[in-house]
Give the backbone structure.
Amino acid sequence: MAVPALSPLLEFPEITLEKAVQYPLVLWSAEHCEPLSHQIMELLSSATSKLNVVDHAKSFELMAVLVAAGYGIGFAGKSRIDTARKLGIVMRPLAGSPNDLSTYLLRAQNAPSPFTERLIERARKLDQSRSVGIT
C-alpha cells in the first residue's frame, strides 16, 4: 500500500484489505495499466465495503503525487513505493498472504539489446531466489 507520510494508517505495521477500503483509493487506469489494474480489482473484489475510488492513475508517478497530496491511498509494488519516499509516500504491506504482481516483458524476436539482456538476467536471478517462474 502507498500511503501519505502523515496517514493514520502508519500506526499499523500491515494494513488489512478491509481497513484499506475504508479510505479513498487511487487505482490504476484500466486503459493505461490494464494488467495491473485487473490484478488490483481482482484483489479488491473480496472486500465487503463499498469502494471509494477518487481517481485512476495513468502512471505510478501520478499515483505517487495524488497519494502524497492526501487524495487517497494506492496499490503498487514495494520497490516503486520505496523509490518515491522523497515525494512523501510510505509503504505499508497488505496484511494476509503475499499478493504478487505479475510483470511481463514483451520484445521482438531479434536479439535483445544489452539493456534488455541485463534486465532479463536480473529477473532470472530474482526468479531463482524467490522460486517464481519466468518464461
In short: The helical segments are 17-20, 34-44, 60-68, 78-83, 114-130. The first strand starts at residue 2 and ends at 4. The radius of gyration is 16 Å.
